[in-house]
Amino acid sequence: xADVKEALxxxxxGEIPLRAPIKVLIDGEVVDTSxxxxxxxxxxxEGYPFINRPLNKSDLNKLTADVFLKYGEKETxxxxxxxxxxxxxxxxxxxxxxxxxxxxxxxxxxxxxKQTLEETNKLFMNYEMGFITExxxxxxFVDMWSKLIxxxxxxxxxxxxMDNPLRAVIDAKSRxxxxxxxxxxxxxxxxxxxxxxxxxxxxxxxxVEGLNEFEYFIACKGARKGLIDTALRTSESGYLTRRxxxxxxxxxIREEDCGSKEGFPMCKEDDKFRSDPFRNRMIxxxxxxxxxxxxxxxxxxxRNDLITPEIADAIDGAGIDKIFIRSPITCHTPYGCCQKxxxxxxxxxxxxxxxxxxxxxxxxxxxxxxxQLVLRTFHKGGIVGTDITQGLPRIEELFxxxxxxxxxxxxxxxxxxxxxxxxxxxxxxxxxNETEDVFVYDxxxxxxxxxxxxxxxxxxxxxxxxxxGEVVKAIKSGEIVIDREAKTIKLxxxxxxxxxxxxxxxxxxxxxxxxxxxxxxxITKGNIDPTILVETRGMLEAQRYTLxxxxxxYSDQGVTANDKHIEVIVGQMARYVQIVDPGDSNLLIGEYRxxxxxxxxxKKLEKEGKKPIRFKQKLMGIKAAxxxxxxxxxxxxxxxxxxxxxxxxxxxxxxxxxxxxxxxxIGRLIPKGDAARLSRPLLIG
Length: 685
Hints:
By secondary structure, this protein is an alpha+beta fold. The chain is built from 23 helices and 19 strands. Helix 3 packs antiparallel against helix 4. It starts with a helix and ends with a helix.
């Protein structure tokens, strides 16, 4: 066809079908395309490059974001209206409905199911004869069938023709996913009972051929689990959202730049936890440290530079896999965040405005998908491994900084591992660390020595007499080396540190006999308790772990949440510090205050020559952080009303009305826009 109009006219006259391959001259170039793609490109804004490929749900989201960036809000709204009308028009004409003959089972599926059934029978026989434990039997059973389901799921999709309506629905990523189609075409697999325990009787038929009576009965248990989850977990998800809002409602953009020199590490290795790659994650953030090219040593971008797509490409192209960015986690603005540490507003793609309530935005952005995830259980029919109840409790665990279920054992010291048996089904993992302390003494003369030809001394034993005639004693027990020329005694004391962990023989070890481990390293498989990470590797590492694991749960369920939102919440979890010694301030021991407000107050006290405040920092759960809020109005309207108000009355607490909730409660205007700017004295309180 000579141009797009000619091709569209031919389609309207019924000469060519919608999806037929055609050649069209576009901008002086012959393009292999179809009428459908020409119609789609007609609705794009003027001047937008020609799109000549199938688009799924996520591609449309990216396209909308791109149109918004290039053409602005008004043109994006018009484009979405045109997309909506065109979509409904052609969906109506298409009459898109899968038939039973479209449900094609992959070849050799039945033989492989039969083979896995035989292996399952052998497994159960080994258990009955006492060769394996119940734990090993359950795990092997689930692994065996999960592996088969995964393989057949991939083959089911590959086996379908591109014109198959089921394949089109999967590729569009709109409604179903391949696991649902596998249940219809191949087999259902293992289901869970209402308590979430796998039923060790696999359903080997699919919905096309129909289940037998026994399988139907088992499948009902999976369906019941879906209904129970929908009823129970929705309320939990709503409560999570409420806690998130309560902990973060006071986080507003308060100033342009807090001047923080701290940076939060953004690493390429963390890509495995999320769907967004390293290059995309850095766009829209400000740098905390200069980025230097590893080969040419030239500066790619300086501290406080905004990372644009061009700079992101340069950093990624240079093979750099770790940068330090400004983050709400390391922001020094008391009671909020600054523009530089937050970066670009995700709604406008411009620098975030002063007064923007980023805390509430973060809480809603993380709470809303958790509601969706809960409801999504129902669609999967209680299939093992596809269930959000393995996800939502994990999200709660992380946000509440709880000891996780099936917590991993973490090495508390550096050292060498040795493993020994400790009775029935128990093993001891011992980490030993040997260090040497060396002390050197100068003695006046040979006559002054008190140790003769000894090679070892005990703690407190006399070594020699000094010039005043006083006996110099050994600080610790150890070996001694005398250098008679230099007239020195070297005392070498070996310090042996040992930690022992008694574990069940069923736990999966990540270390072996003779391994050298570092403090904070995992000894067994499982999730780490973040409070242990704080002690062994520091607060930033614990916050990075929490951020990555929350992202892992969301992305596993196909939900994209921007790192910024999680950083705002995780920042609040470590925001409040407990006063250990109030120094010369008017604060009380045990009181909780904003860390950066205390640091500013300490600077003021030191300038005046007064004693500074000493405090301790810990990672708190969102519920605890919300109750420790400096605003007693906010805390009392959340939970434990009587206790919060009693405590506030006893110590004569003042509420400075810095957040959103406390202003709403007493009927004032909320601090938005320039009203969110608080002078430094008012920030410190």
